[in-house]
Amino acid sequence: MTGEMSQAEVEEASSKYLFQNYSQTPLAFERGEGAYLYGLDGRRYLDLVAGIAVNAIGYSHPEWVARMSGQISRIAHCSNLYMCRERAELGERLASIAPGGLCRSLFVNSGAEANEGAMKMAVRYTGRGEIASALNGFHGRTAGSLGATGQEKYRQSFEPLISGAYRYYRYGDAESVKEVVGRDTAALLYEPIQGEGGVVSADPSFYKALRDICTDNGTVLVADEVQTGMGRTGKWFCTEHYGVTPDVITVAKGLGGGLPLGAVLATEELAKVMVPGTHGTTFGGNPLVCASGCAVIDIIEEEGLLDKVSRIGGEWISDLRAIGSDRVREVRGRGFLIGAETDSEETAKGVRERMMEAGILVNVCHGSVIRLIPPLILSEAQRDEFTRLFAEFLS
Q: Which structural domains are found in the chain, ordered by start?
């Protein structure tokens, strides 16, 4: 019978039966509510990780639970051989919030798959064979998205699977982009904020330069908003902050509200090249996950979470900078995607462990960066609880 294991039994079974490909904290949860997770050990934890930016509306949101319960009692999955009402509804909702003419959606199961689909579409549309992406970027772990990921530590030992089609530019450096983008470049991928790379952004002029360079070369501009999209930075899509409209946006994580859902958003012109047989997935866009995507969008709108994230996140960054510790080199980010770069990996690890002892979950990325990616429903009091403990630790 499932759901009866103790913490110790979970640890034992995980060690005995599962691939050991994750570096895991010995902590398991039985339920979540709002911005909190409840461990098998009975403790409550304030979650500032949100499933790595996935649980946008928190845990067990009453409206979401009601709509998912109703949906699963009707139909959870059907084949893409047939039309699907929930899929059509989510496509319509995404078209209503996407910038520019991005009115078509292709639904998949993850961000990596969304990036794969975007690259396939760009190659088919342009007839070209090269992809440009940023050093220090992250676009996924499947073979194609791994090739686009400009971090050697992720590609190491998988070189036989990676195509020679990828060219890498320095993030934030328009001249570097010009060196790798030309008439053979099908697509240029960029993150409006590099999440796994340590919450790194560039001057707004850089994103405008990307748009101009791609337009001049007939290259498809792809914004990877897997982590930054769906309200995380205070707008539906982070690229809106910079006044730049890409040709394609890829999303996932927060879109599904906890269920596996990703999407490629594209213009009519680009989408038309993806005819039957060019791409597909058994589970992508099934009724359950699409109903979840619709619920997430509705709840974000109904509760005014975009404005809330913008306000609370902006105040949070200011408060963290005001701590003024020598052990924090920089605080950066936007909305509820915040990185506090510490002076060492040891400091970052110490913060994470101290916070967990105090009942707060935080994430460390890129070695020494404390990454804060909480549910969009986080309150001022919950934000301030972390900031107080963080300041105490640093002092």
A: 7-61+304-394 (3.90.1150.10), 75-302 (3.40.640.10)
